[in-house]
Write a structure and sequence with these properties.
By secondary structure, the protein is mostly helical. It has two domains: about 70 residues, no CATH class; about 120 residues, Endonuclease III, domain 1. The protein contains twelve helices and no strands. The N terminus is likely disordered.
Amino acid sequence: MAGWEIMRGSLSKKLLDNFGQTYSQELGIKLKSGKSSEIFKWFLASLLFGKRIGENIAKKTYFLFAERGVLTPDKILQTGWDGLVKILDEGGYVRYDFSTADRLLEVMKELKEKYQGNLNKLHQKAKNAKDLEDKLQEFKGIGPVTTNIFLRELRGIWKKANPELSPFVLLAAKKLKMGDPKRYWEKHKVRGYDFTNFEAALLRLGKDWFHKGKVWKP
């Protein structure tokens, strides 16, 4: 039994070492600081990831926003529709440039009106995890997918952030015969990582299995 536990623990470490960087970490966003400015950056990235578009395009486009210093609600509003479309086109959002620019401007206006542009205030006002998700989805154009993307990396940072596990995460856990990913993590934690890293790793594997038929062998 001890040997099996060691093997399962080794699986966790290999999984994390290969795929455990969170998406926010990959983008250079310091979410763990809990700062409103960093959480907003992840919010912007989540809005980009939430479109039906390739991850690489979403990442490239986020980096373009960062290069131009367009990383606050005020900066997005000041950039305006034409400026946003230009950034989105350069990033590869040719099919979604107009609609994404519209949505970004509408969300920023509402974020400033309701929460003074501070997403931490949104979290403070939420009664519980469900209410937090509902408040995010009150923004025009933000649905369950974008909400899930945004909240999953805020586990442990926002007390009320506790979204459902993605179907891709559950698929990877099933393929690796882990059972419930949260219970598995509690038994096989790896120093230096937390559950958001583990979830990100399973998410990447699940997407590869589903979309590309790639099989990861530890």
